[in-house]
């Protein structure tokens, strides 16, 4: 297998934050122990990539190949690889590796590991024709989903699913603030699980509200509107701290407001009475492999249908700009072929 591989690959590379990515020819990397070399078929463009490119997250690896919603096929394996072999389709998520030994890993919170690697942030990711990944952190993918359509499941889907879990099993009426890649997946999962979803878009975004209705939301409106009923929980997928307060206002006693994002603007001061009556304000960080296994098993049952806007690899800057402008309906995905 290895002899048929090219020596060079094309990649979109971040050399400095706040600069455009550059299309470069780089050597195809070699898999180390436990690693897979993957020919990338598609890689989702996540809001976290935008935060990295825009310098809003500290200390990325530089230069960096971004991208952590990777779908591809194994073309070579390192030593000690046992789960996957050449030809198999795999998905690579944000959580690239953990130490397995810290107090968080030991108690089942590997998403909070003290020594993690994050795909497309602290190690190179999928805005490239080839990438490396640790096999223990890769997922097999449902067969009846195309490469580009599967890519958003690997972060938008997984983080959305974890956010839904942390919103609480007893939460029946659930708000989604920010109806993008994560929102359009989690509304399908939540509806399948018997929840009522109330979708909040940018004020006046009628096409976004229509999109939410089509995917199963029982109500859709602007984030400046109050829902017709008090919510048991709300999930925030837009990087806007003020939405945490808006969501608290819409939440019933004992309700939970969960932010699914890695970065948001400051949360404005708010009166304690909004938090009173045992309301909870919390964040979600990263994912565990169990989250991934659960969502990827659930997705074909729903079945989750992702809506993607595809771009060639060399148009990654344009994809990021469309995401920045809020112009993508569903998820943006780079296709390599
Ligand atoms: Zn750890
Ligand atoms: Zn992401």
Provide structural commentary.
The protein has 337 residues and is α/β, with parallel strands linked by helices. The protein folds into 2 domains: 2-155 and 287-335, Medium-chain alcohol dehydrogenases, catalytic domain (Quinone Oxidoreductase, Chain A, domain 1, Alpha-Beta Complex), CATH 3.90.180; 158-283, Rossmann fold (3-Layer(aba) Sandwich), CATH 3.40.50.720. Helix content is 22%, strand content 27%. The chain has 9 helices and 17 strands. The chain has helices at residues 47-53, 103-106, 147-150, 156-166, 181-192, 206-214, 242-249, 289-298, 316-324; strands at residues 8-13, 22-27, 35-45, 70-77, 89-92, 95-97, 117-118, 130-134, 139-140, 173-177, 196-201, 219-222, 231-236, 251-259, 280-283, 308-312, 331-335. Strands 3, 4, 5, 8, 9, 16 and 17 form a 7-stranded mixed sheet that branches. β11, α6 (206-214) and β12 form a beta-alpha-beta unit. α4 (156-166) crosses α5 (181-192) and α4 (156-166) crosses α8. It is globular, with a radius of gyration of 20 Å. The mean pLDDT is 97. One zinc ion (ZN) binds at residues 98-99, 102, 104-105, 113-115.
Distance between the termini: 19 Å
Estimate the mean pLDDT confidence.
97
The SSE string, one letter per element, is: EEEHEEEHEEEHHEHEHEEHEEHEHE
> How many beta-strand runs?
17
Number of domains: 2
State the CATH architecture of the largest domain.
Answer: Alpha-Beta Complex
Quaternary structure state of the chains depicted: single chain
**What is the count of helical runs?**
9
Rounded radius of gyration (Å): 20 Å
* Proportion of helical residues: 10-25%
Helix/sheet category: alpha/beta
- Strand content is 25-35%
State the CATH class of the largest domain.
Alpha Beta
Shape: globular
Bound molecules: zinc ion
CATH topology of the largest domain: Quinone Oxidoreductase, Chain A, domain 1
